[in-house]
Amino acid sequence: MSTPPDSSFETLIENSKNINSKAFNLTRCILLSLISFYKDGLQFRELKVFLEISDGKLQSNLDFLLEMGYIKKIKVDLDQKIIHIFMIDKSGKKELKKIIEWIEFLKKLVIKNND
């Protein structure tokens, strides 16, 4: 097994410091990805169906992303009923991009190390 040059490890560690470690968990990454993918936003119930998690777990993760400014919650009046749509914000897009770039670098490092 070959080991990557020290600079690769240094880059991996250094780039990881650019990611908000509180946003980097599987549920939050999936939420950011889903909300980013659906340009018109998603409702709570739609997110719940995608993730198959409890209301409390979903709500606490959405609250965190809202608090960080990564997503926004928009009130929509639909057929005399108020619904809330979650949409990604600019800072959420930036954070998601950082996470994706870090994972891509890690993937390259692992592939190179396993050759």
Percent helix range:
55-70%
What structural category characterises the helix and strand content? alpha+beta
Looking at CATH, the homologous superfamily is Winged helix-like DNA-binding domain superfamily/Winged helix DNA-binding domain
Strand adjacency order, main sheet: 1-3-2
The end-to-end distance, rounded to whole angstroms, is 8 Å
CATH architecture: Orthogonal Bundle
Element-level helix/strand string: HHEHHEEH
Largest sheet: 3 strands, antiparallel
Descriptors for this entry?
115 residues, alpha+beta, Arc Repressor Mutant, subunit A, three-stranded antiparallel sheet, 5 helices, 3 strands, 60% helix, elongated
Task: Give a topology summary.
Layout lengths: L5 H11 L9 H12 L4 E2 H8 L3 H13 L3 E8 L2 E8 L1 H25 L1
Antiparallel strand pairs: 1-3, 2-3
Your description of this structure?
The chain is an alpha+beta fold. The chain has one domain (6-114): Winged helix-like DNA-binding domain superfamily/Winged helix DNA-binding domain (Arc Repressor Mutant, subunit A, Orthogonal Bundle). The chain is built from 5 helices and 3 strands; from the N terminus they run ααβααββα. It has helices spanning 6-16, 26-37, 44-51, 55-67, 90-114; strands at 42-43, 71-78, 81-88. The chain has a 3-stranded antiparallel beta sheet. A hairpin with a 2-residue loop joins β2 (71-78) and β3 (81-88). α1 runs antiparallel to α5, α2 packs across α4 and α2 packs across α5 (90-114). The protein is elongated. It starts with 5 loop residues before the first helix and ends with a helix. The mean pLDDT is 87.
